[in-house]
Design a protein that fits this description.
Elements lengths: L2 E4 L6 H9 L15 H10 L6 E8 L4 E13 L3 E10 L8 H16 L4 E6 L4 H9 L3 E12 L2 E11 L2
Parallel strand pairs: 4-5
Antiparallel strand pairs: 1-2, 2-3, 3-4, 5-7, 6-7
Helix pairs in contact: 3-4
Length: about 170
């Protein structure tokens, strides 16, 4: 199944609103209801292609149909250690088909080609075995446990950190 990454279009806003308002749609990352209006305001501001954060649509070319969204956010370690953290969310009907790891690998190649980033990192939940395997297939290496980093489902939870370097 062929996939591609493309900028967010108006036709994608309904899917992005769903991610903010449907419990369980984004799996373990559900953190309660969020303002669906932020989707339209963000699209109007920069079409999700901001200087510090944003994302692209994961599209299955047969159709074509939007299967999900990959996101980026710039961060920094120390005085000169800028990195990008990426994330992905796929609609349930597109999970388990190899789309996620391929989209994340494509996204890394895109970022390495079009930005000076050296380090790309991604976090996931210890219980999300599928995402751990996807990250490793996409060229990421496990770095370790980030203790108590996320408040989810009524408690503080650990996370797993992965990274991929330009070199």
């Amino acid at each position: 199944m062929a996939i591609r990454l493309r900028p967010v279009g108006e036709e994608d806003l309904a899917m992005l609103r769903r991610f903010k308002t449907e419990p369980g749609l984004i799996g373990l990352d559900w953190a309660g209801f969020r303002d669906p209006g932020t989707v339209d305001r963000r699209f109007a501001a920069d079409s999700y292609l901001g200087e510090d954060d944003g994302g692209l649509i994961v599209e299955v070319e047969t159709g074509p149909v939007a299967a999900g969204f990959v996101s980026y956010r710039w961060g920094q370690f120390g005085a000169a250690g800028r990195h990008v953290e990426i994330g992905i969310v796929l609609l349930p009907e597109w999970r388990g088909q190899g789309i996620g790891w391929r989209a994340q690998a494509m996204f890394c190649e895109y970022l390495f080609r079009h930005t000076p980033v050296h380090r790309i990192q991604a976090g996931t939940h210890p219980e999300n075995i599928a995402e751990q395997k996807a990250l490793e297939k996409a060229g990421f290496q496990f770095e370790g446990v980030i203790r108590g980093c996320e408040f989810r489902d009524g408690g503080w939870r650990d996370g797993y950190l992965y990274s991929r370097l330009r070199s």
